[in-house]
Amino acid sequence: MIRTLCFLVLLSSTTAWGRVSLWSEGRNGTGGGSGDRCTCDAFLPSSTFPIKDLVVVEQTAVEISHKLEMEMGKLEEYETKLTVYAEKIIKLTAEIEIMEKNPDDYNDADMEDMKVEIKQMEALIKELQISVSSSIAIFESLRVQITAMVETLNKLEKTYDKNLVLVTRREYIKVQIQLEECERRHQELFNPNIGSCAHTGISRVSKPIVSHLNAHLSSDHKFGGWGKDSKPIPDRETMYWFSGSTGASIGDIRFYTNYKNLILRNHFQHHVLHSSWTGTGNNFIIRDNTLYYQDSSPFGLAKLNFTTMKYESRVIPSASALFSYTNSPGQNFDFASDETGLWVTYASEESNGLMIIAKIDEPSFGVVEEWMTSVYKPGVSNAFMVCGILYAVRTIDMHTEEIFYKYDTNTKQESYVSVPFERFQDKFSNLDYNPTDQKLYMYNDGYYVNYHLWFNHTATVAPPTLLM
Q1: How many Å from the N-terminal Cα to the C-terminal Cα in the chain?
Q2: pTM over 0.70
Q3: pLDDT for 380-390, tens place per residue?
Q4: Residue 239: which of 439, 429, 436 has the closest Cα?
Q5: Which CATH number does 51-189 carry?
Q6: Which CATH number fits domain 198-457: 3.30.10, 2.120.10, 2.60.40, 3.40.50?
Q7: If 407 and its partner were Cys, which of 136, 356, 414, 423 is the partner (CB 3.0–4.6 Å)?
């Protein structure tokens, strides 16, 4: 009876977050009348579970989901308006051309009617521009909220009961996917210039979009990279890849069918590189289902085709292992992919550390042409290619990077620019541009981070004549 009562007391005293040891009869199991009393050793946590934080996260997820549903509805309206506006612009353009060819057939009243139609069209387009700007601001605001959510969830999951947090994490993943879909639809509608090089360069970089801590869920895996295939094979257009390590090397790589599975850390392939194929540095990329990276031995270029599992390597005799990016050891070869093909940059002793751009022929894996720049590689934090133009990045302060230099291989012209953008954490080991979505992908102290890019376009899809 005493044992039963003791057990019931233990059950009633145990919280959802604490544990109680097995009950015992007596202090030491000896006589002295102690057998009529039980002693219980309770081990409770030093702090209670912050359920309020979890409730706030859940409420935030519901609010964000509701906002995203509203934005998706707006995007459908935008799509309809764009179709109508495009038809009106085509009709107006045709009428103006007829009037220009036969001016004598029209009087002042006809001209005034046409001016009114143009003004009305301008007002409609301005209204749409304001709506689009409002949506972009909402997306950025939601990104900030989601970033705060995942930080709270990571903290709770690491410190407290993982099973309890898992339900809320599912809500977070659902919201993340909704936002990705919303942004994709927005991009399709309002960025028809993807794949086009009809621009004069980068004009702006978005705030950092933080996706998740790496697949190892460890901030110790500071070295690595992530992103999408820059020239995806059929049925792998939505695929993401990741490789991370505690050191500046690459020994394996994971593939995810889509963004959802990247967030869930649910890979469909995990390739461990053969010991003779492992590489150094972190500026590797995936292009045409092929990994391009820096070879360890011999020092040079390497590629591994995951379709055929064929490995190849090449040596550039003049390339030096003495010159790497600031704060990034072993980054001697930096692969890049853009709208025009495959590239690699490096420095040599003959160039005194100045960066050299090399165009790579993909089938032969040979260097087609080279360009010498005047930027010193050890003074650069990273670099990438867009439309045949090299963009070099440097660190300004603890939170800010700056695109400060560009070299156009098409014209052999170089210039200094200033396009600042924000880092998420202190240091990053990988920064690459992907032409399929015009984003920068950064691996920043163990976190997946990406940025939207804006360009100074010299040509647009719709006639610009009616815009003020």
Answers
A1: 89
A2: no
A3: 999 999 999 99
A4: 436
A5: 1.20.1050
A6: 2.120.10
A7: 414
